[in-house]
Design goal:
Transposase; Homeodomain-like_sf; 138 residues
Length: 138
C-alpha cells in the first residue's frame, strides 16, 4: 500500500545538531551536485522557520520542490531527502577502476599513426587489454 505524508506551512523539519552540521558541510563543500546543495539549503531554511513559498523564492525553485524535499525527509530521513534514489535498469557494466582505465585510453595518443580515437578503436583497445563484453555501445 502507499503512504501519504501531508506537508504544509506548519510541517516542521526536526533536525538534530549532527544533521544540521552535515547539511552545512554539504552546502560549503563545493564538490556536491547542485541538486544536493539545493536540497540541503531547503532543509536548513525550513529549520530556521521559513515558509515553503519563501524558501522557494529565496532559492529560485518551485514550491513543489520544497514540498518534495520536506516530504522525503519526513518519510525517509536525511539521506533520502538529499540523495537521488537508485535508478532501475541495467546495472553499470564497469566500476570506477575500469572507467578510469577507459578514460586513460581515450586521453592517450592512439596507436597506428591515427590522429584521434574512434569508438571502434577504443573498443578494440579495450578488448586487447582484457575487458569483457565490450562493444561499441559499452
Amino acid at each position: 500500500m502507499f503512504s501519504y505524508t501531508f506537508i504544509n506551512e506548519k510541517t516542521e523539519v526536526d533536525l538534530d545538531e549532527k544533521s544540521i552540521q552535515e547539511l552545512k558541510n554539504i552546502v560549503k563543500s563545493g564538490k556536491r551536485a547542485v541538486r544536493e546543495v539545493t536540497r540541503a539549503r531547503i532543509l536548513l531554511l525550513s529549520k530556521s522557520g521559513k515558509g515553503n513559498d519563501e524558501i522557494a523564492e529565496i532559492l529560485c525553485v518551485n514550491r513543489n520542490t520544497v514540498l518534495g524535499v520536506k516530504k522525503r525527509f519526513l518519510e525517509g530521513g536525511l539521506k533520502r531527502a538529499i540523495h537521488d534514489a537508485e535508478r532501475s535498469g541495467q546495472p553499470k557494466k564497469y566500476g570506477d577502476k575500469e572507467t578510469a582505465e577507459i578514460i586513460a585510453i581515450a586521453c592517450s595518443s592512439p596507436s597506428g599513426g591515427r590522429k584521434r580515437w574512434t569508438v571502434r578503436l577504443i573498443s578494440d583497445e579495450m578488448k586487447k587489454r582484457g575487458f569483457e563484453g565490450t562493444n561499441r555501445e559499452s
